[in-house]
Design a protein that fits this description.
Layout: H1 11-24, H2 29-39, H3 43-55, H4 61-76, H5 80-89, H6 94-101, H7 106-123, H8 129-142, H9 147-157
Helix pairs in contact: 1-3, 2-3, 4-5, 4-6, 5-6, 7-8, 7-9, 8-9
Length: about 160
């Protein structure tokens, strides 16, 4: 079996590989576009393949956004800001991102924020309440939670509000 050089993959082979990849797990159109180009498909073939896969529902950016938001929230415990930024990096539309983020239940979101806060607090050795507050808020922001929610949760947790 001979290895194909970059730029020499046929449209049919590229379509088969892309369809197989999409059958295994969710991917958005920009991820598949990058894959096809890295395999050596021409730009014209890439767009035709993407359109075919979209038409056959192998690729569905909205379905991808929902699954991505669900997984990153549930398993990585990311906040909406971080999830939204990652989806923007994948070139999804604002509507797709908004619909994906809307699938995160508010009660579970606040519970995850609280758990992240408590877990981080156990690792801190600061006795100064304001240094502790700063570190807790920065931690929540780094996890992708909104500034207002982070400050409110930390104030409530440290009995400052």
């Amino acid at each position: 079996m001979r290895k194909e050089k970059v730029g020499q993959i046929s449209k049919e082979v590229a379509l088969g590989k892309a369809a197989s990849l999409c059958s295994l797990s969710e991917h958005c159109s920009s991820q598949i576009r990058e894959k096809l180009l890295s395999w050596g498909a021409s730009a014209e073939d890439t767009e035709e393949i993407i359109n075919h896969l979209l038409g056959e529902k192998y690729i569905d950016n909205l379905r991808f956004a929902r699954a991505y938001c669900h997984d990153k929230f549930l398993y990585s415990h990311w906040g909406r800001i971080k999830i939204g930024q990652m989806l923007r990096n994948l070139r999804l539309s604002k509507e797709e991102i908004a619909e994906g983020l809307a699938t995160i239940p508010e009660e579970a979101y606040l519970e995850t924020l609280s758990e992240a806060l408590q877990t981080k607090d156990k690792t801190l050795k600061d006795t100064n309440v304001y240094q502790r507050k700063g570190k807790l808020v920065r931690h929540l922001l780094s996890r992708g939670f909104e500034m207002e929610l982070a400050i409110e949760a930390v104030d409530e947790y440290l009995n400052l509000g």
